[in-house]
Amino acid sequence: MSQLGSDQFLPTSGLSLEEDILVRKLLLVHDPDGRHLDSELLLQAIEDVMCCATSSETVCDIKGEDDIRQTGVVGSQEPLGVIIHRISSEMVCQCSSQKNMYARTLYLFDLLGYYTWDAKVVLVLAAISMSYAEFCLLIQLSTSNPLAESITMLKRLQPNSKAFKPRLKALSSLIMKMLDMAKYIFKFTNLSISHLNPDKEAIETIKSNICITAFWIIRSSLTSCSHMHDLMTTKPGKLSSLAYTLTKIYDRLKRLVDGLIQQLEKKVEQKLASLFQETRGDNKEALTTLFALKDKFPLKEKYSQAKVGIAELIGKVVVFLISKSEFPSPEEWLLLFHQANNPPQNKTLEGNYEIVWVPISSSCTWTDSEERSFEYLSNCMPWYSLRRPHLLIPAVVNFIKQSWNYKEKPIMVVMDANGAITNLNAIDMLRIWGVKAYPFSSSREEELWEAESWGLQLLFNGIDQLLTYWIEQGKNVCIYGSSDVRWIKEFHSKMEIISEGAQLEIVYVGNRSHHVQMMYTLASIQRHLSPTKIRFFWLRLESMRKSKLRLGKAVNTDQTLQQVSALLDFDENNKGWAIFGQGSSADTIRLDGNRLMECVDKFPKWGQNAGKWGLLNAIRIALEPAARDSPCSHTDTVPFEEGLVEKVRFCAKCKHPMTNFVVYE
Known about the structure:
Blueprint: H1 17-28, E1 36-37, H2 39-54, H3 65-69, E2 73-74, H4 80-96, H5 101-111, H6 117-141, H7 146-154, H8 164-189, H9 200-228, H10 236-275, H11 284-291, E3 299-300, E4 307-308, E5 317-323, H12 330-340, H13 343-349, E6 353-359, H14 368-380, E7 384-386, H15 394-402, E8 411-415, E9 421-423, H16 427-433, H17 442-450, H18 456-460, H19 465-472, E10 476-481, H20 485-502, E11 504-508, H21 516-523, H22 531-550, H23 559-572, E12 577-582, E13 588-592, H24 593-601, H25 603-606, H26 610-613, H27 615-623, E14 649-650, E15 657-658
Parallel strand pairs: 5-6, 6-7, 10-11
Antiparallel strand pairs: 1-2, 3-4, 3-7, 5-8, 8-9, 10-12, 12-13, 14-15
Helix pairs in contact: 1-9, 2-6, 2-8, 4-6, 4-9, 5-9, 6-8, 6-9, 8-9, 8-10, 9-10, 10-15, 12-16, 12-22, 16-22, 20-24, 22-23
Domain Sieve element occlusion C-terminal: 443-664
Protein name: Protein SIEVE ELEMENT OCCLUSION C
InterPro entries: SEO_C, SEO_N, SEOA
């Protein structure tokens, strides 16, 4: 829908004859020239000013202070502060003139002719709130500052008189009522509804009422300005009468706007039922229906924090990260950030997809705690986020919960560039493979597993650079875990001897539980993952199991699922364990606590064979000596090379030693 300020419309039958004539007069001087002001941000600053001016507290919660300092009027040569000051000066001049209030209001309306309706209102409110705040500041300082006291005497103000406080309260109430009216103007102008085929007659009626509302806000501002300069002679009844008129106008506008929004929400609910069942050329309609009904700029930009529209997402794969306003743990955020922003992989895909955080409240109403958590996390977010998630309509929230199966645990729903949902939860894919999982569809998940094999490389996937380097270099690596401090220290001291003789790198990967005891354990071990990377390791293991089970794999037929489930079970049962592997090979040995210690204690017997047979084969033969005397029945043909006959070759299938024969062609 186009901006209200650029629409040319005729008054409707919803107005009285007097109001109808007034609207026609106002439209003659309403000629916006494209100047743009972030009215919503300025209105927030005005609310902050009024909150501090009317509060008895010494400290006020100021929101967006830095943002408003950088805000200006796009298309104007003058800074915002100069514009507001000029309007304020004109209001003071108008108050001292002999013109009647109606003529003075039309004059100020003419002065604001180049601005849109919402900009007219917010600029006038900025001017009157600034004057009111300066007035209140003077009163507050008059008891402790001689200069302020002298000024109040010159202005003939009597802050301690019985008549003063009721007059000041009436003035404050009038300004706050104007702020409420302004919010409903913005509530309407922020709507993005063209794709919903809105009732045109209802739209025109609201526009006419906004025209009337803007007139009365300007008129009331002039009245407030006049009374501020002569507060002691003003009767509170005059301001109360004006406030009553504003209330009637506000109630009418509120009823019309709320009624329209209710109709539109029903249309959204109906549209969502069939939206993702149809093929479209792009994802614009889907994005608009989900997020842009009450906000033309529903997103917060990932770097500048600027508000942006859904145009930034059109034609891209969009991954919706849906969660509560706070994540279960910082490591879950960090792992997603790490995997989604891996520079070598992300660089080639940059611009093809976007991640958008969609926080959902745990109740029907956002709490202060949820708001604070959202503000903090969204400002740190490396992705887009919904700018005002509390504006998500109930129909959309219900759709996310029911159709996308959101149960308050984080999920990542994937929409392709055509607006089709290709994955209802890609969070495990991202944890396992990072951006290599692009375009994050369910079919891509199956492709990745088909190309994947079990091994140390899968377990770490770049979450630790040193371990990754060792694996790429083909080194022997042992990773182990436990929560039993005594067992860990005993195992570690014995393995230090083995690592020297067998050229083995040993790394402690902890357990899933975060507690102080583990920190003491890490302090006594030379090589271990950092606490954050330990958490990454276990989160990825959990994601691997969930991903496999979601694809219908079984433990008894899938090696990766079998190995991962065993590690998670060891951890749940507080058992010590270790995995031995060499480089990126899929050949590994997994041992639990008792077998592991048995293997370690037998090192003097099998250690000398590690160089000849390889570490893993030497361990197997040490634990299963009978295998050495009973060659398997499998066969394997390899090209001849010098010294091959003298070497012991092990079967790739059963790992038993094989008997060598020479075959001539």
